[in-house]
Specification:
0% strand; mainly alpha
């Protein structure tokens, strides 16, 4: 006759592997660290409980720091469930390794577990803490180097824009020769430089999506400006108004792009 197994966990509540896994999926390693730690404390292992929480916090920081370091074009192609499934699977394996036998006996002896609702609440609280941390990082601690670099390039773009749009003021005051010289030596070259600026900033590593979208509009805007000024040059050189309709359409397109930029 086999000896009955001693019920060492009688009278205490533990978090089941299933509860820890569910909370981890939504609340990350932070939730897992807390719940595994609480199990250890209930089992009379406070130091291991404290270490579990610390590991959960550190792992959460490392995990989300790593995610932020992944280029946006790559992270956008990763299904949203993949990363939570991976770390949940890893943590489930750790729970089985460290506490699996105890939890199994706890269940076989008919002892109590914390409810799934309690575990879900811990997962939710953990998620809120993580979101607060992420928003704090994004809005307060984000490295602004890429924005500073972009703004430096755009300041040249804006300077070129201001210096060249005075051409419209000169249309009725300068000679045709002066206008063509202005177009050839300053206006058209500076807008071609603006196209180069946008193409150059598009190559910046980890350029934020909002700047990528802005660049698409700025590139179109610059190309339309080049087109308009080249039409002006043709009209002046040929002393004709046959390009008037095309110029009008081009300026309408410019206004549409400017409206989107503003």
């Amino acid at each position: 006759m086999t000896e009955p197994v001693e019920n060492k966990t009688k009278g205490i509540k533990l978090y089941s592997s299933k509860a820890i896994g569910g909370a981890t999926f939504f609340g990350g390693p932070l939730a897992a660290g807390y719940m595994i730690g609480e199990n250890f404390k209930a089992l009379g292992k406070p130091s291991e409980g404290r270490n579990s929480l610390i590991i959960g916090i550190v792992t959460t920081i490392i995990l989300f720091t790593g995610i932020f370091m992944i280029p946006e074009n790559i992270i956008d192609n990763i299904p949203r469930q993949i990363i939570p499934l991976i770390y949940t699977g890893i943590i489930w394996g750790i729970v089985e390794w460290k506490q699996g036998d105890v939890l199994k006996l706890h269940k076989e002896n008919g002892n109590s577990f914390f409810s799934g609702w309690r575990a879900a609440g811990i997962g939710l609280i953990s998620l809120i803490i993580i979101l607060i941390g992420i928003f704090g990082y994004v809005f307060l601690g984000m490295d602004n180097e890429i924005y500073d670099k972009y703004d430096t390039e755009l300041s040249v773009f804006s300077k070129n824009e201001i210096e060249t749009l005075v051409f419209y003021d000169h249309l009725n005051t300068e000679s045709n020769y002066s206008l063509i010289q202005e177009l050839d030596n300053k206006t058209i070259p500076k807008w071609k430089e603006n196209i180069e600026i946008i193409n150059r900033t598009n190559k910046f590593e980890n350029l934020p999506s909002e700047l990528i979208q802005q660049n698409k509009l700025l590139l179109k805007y610059s190309e339309l400006r080049v087109k308009a000024f080249e039409l002006f040059k043709k009209a002046i050189e040929e002393d004709t108004d046959k390009y008037s309709s095309e110029l009008e359409r081009t300026h309408m397109e410019i206004e549409e792009v400017l409206a989107k930029l503003n």
